[in-house]
């Protein structure tokens, strides 16, 4: 369906309404000026033929720097946002020319935030979609990941898919079979997992949605698995987003779901390696992002760390010894009490990928006494952002 794009600079409301339609334009659009954004790695290796072909189409990114300014304008009356720095890990001697930025984030389903989660210290106004949509987009636009893995997405079709398509992302969404959002009056449909990737950076090879099983019994949790080829290096990678069963008492189920996901990934990697078109020397690196609802001493964490797929957790790189997860990735207050825990992870193939930078966690002082979500931050989970590069083949 052809729609007109409203001109930029007409205020955030106009911007938002124009972006939430299927974007198309007859005039060429500029590629995003990465050099204007200090948080964003410069994309020096984009496929020029692809970018030229896509000019003026829905795939061609709009200017994310301008969109970020529009979001900030819509949020001008809120408290200061968290300022988080990237911790560089490569000692500056071999900085990659074009790292792959990955963001993992449970964005908090709108229906759950307003309806079921009972964040007793968070003002109801801070949970309104009219505010949260700008805060979520601001977070994404600030870090501009090449790969974006989201959980608890219940505004995929009316917000995230059309807005991010206008920024050049392709995506896949898998809703939960029986989402708790559907129990909330006035809900926007089921929540689920969504995986977005920058089409100027990656080519889609394959994608599948998985309903996770426990001992061969289907559960309510899902995963999206995407096989991508990097346009600048021609190297392939497999990216997964998932959200495991919540609440204490379900540790055994999370462990079974994690085992099921690892089995699927092992089968996929083996299948690709044995295909006639595969490069015999190319092993496919994995990146697995998710809200595992599991602290690091749980069985499902141990299953991932000891998997034959040689996985490691990127956020351990923030610790002094490189062995310890952050103190928290979620911090909230519910009627049952305060919860401060590490539940979210970015797993990666340690033999095939290098972690070049990790976004630090905000401090307790930044988060504030009422914890999350808040007027400053739209979710009860913090985003995780890492820069990766391919290790050289032996």
UniProtKB/TrEMBL annotation:
Its cofactor is Mg(2+). The keyword Ion transport does not apply. GO terms for cellular component: cytoplasm. The keyword Ribonucleoprotein does not apply. GO terms for molecular function: metal ion binding; poly(A)-specific ribonuclease activity. One of its GO terms (biological process) is circadian rhythm. Residues 103-381 form the Endonuclease/exonuclease/phosphatase domain. It is found in: Cytoplasm. Keywords: Biological rhythms, Cytoplasm, Hydrolase, Magnesium, Metal-binding. Residues 23-43 are annotated as: Disordered. SUPFAM superfamilies: DNase I-like. Its main location: cytoplasm. It holds the Pfam family Exo_endo_phos. Belongs to the CCR4/nocturin family. This is Nocturnin. The gene is NOCT.
């Amino acid at each position: 369906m052809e729609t007109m794009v409203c001109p930029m600079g007409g205020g955030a409301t106009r911007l938002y309404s124009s972006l939430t339609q299927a974007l198309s334009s007859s005039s060429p659009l500029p590629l995003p000026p990465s050099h204007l954004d200090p948080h964003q790695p410069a994309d020096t290796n984009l496929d020029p033929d692809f970018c030229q072909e896509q000019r003026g189409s829905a795939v061609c990114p709009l200017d994310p720097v301008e969109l970020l300014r529009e979001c900030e304008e819509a949020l001008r009356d809120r408290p200061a946002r968290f300022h988080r720095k990237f911790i560089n890990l490569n000692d500056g001697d071999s900085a990659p020319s074009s790292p792959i930025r990955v963001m993992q984030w449970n964005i908090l389903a709108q229906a759950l935030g307003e309806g079921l989660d009972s964040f007793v210290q968070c003002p109801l106004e801070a949970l309104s979609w009219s505010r949260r949509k700008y805060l979520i987009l601001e977070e994404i636009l600030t870090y501009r990941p090449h790969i974006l893995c989201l959980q608890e997405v219940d505004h995929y079709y009316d917000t995230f898919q059309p807005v991010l398509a206008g920024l050049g992302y392709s995506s896949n969404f898998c809703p939960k079979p029986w989402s708790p959002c559907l129990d909330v009056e006035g809900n926007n449909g089921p929540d689920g997992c969504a995986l977005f990737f920058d089409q100027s950076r990656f080519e889609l090879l394959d994608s599948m949605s998985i309903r996770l099983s426990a001992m061969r019994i289907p559960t309510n949790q899902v995963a999206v698995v995407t096989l991508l080829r990097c346009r600048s290096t021609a190297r392939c990678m497999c990216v997964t987003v998932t959200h495991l069963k919540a609440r204490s008492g379900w540790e055994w189920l999370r462990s079974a779901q994690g085992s099921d996901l690892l089995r699927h990934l092992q089968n996929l990697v083996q299948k690709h390696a044995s295909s006639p078109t595969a490069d015999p020397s190319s092993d496919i690196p994995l990146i697995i992002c998710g809200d595992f609802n599991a602290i690091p001493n749980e069985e499902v964490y141990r299953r991932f760390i000891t998997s034959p797929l040689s996985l490691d957790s990127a956020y351990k790189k923030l610790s002094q010894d490189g062995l310890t997860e952050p103190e928290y990735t979620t911090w909230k207050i519910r009627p049952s009490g305060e919860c401060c825990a590490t539940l979210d992870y970015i797993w990666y193939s340690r033999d095939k990928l290098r972690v070049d930078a990790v976004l630090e966690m905000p401090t307790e002082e930044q988060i504030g006494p009422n914890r999350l979500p808040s007027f400053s931050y739209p979710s009860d989970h913090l985003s995780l952002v890492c820069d990766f590069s391919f290790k050289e083949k032996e």
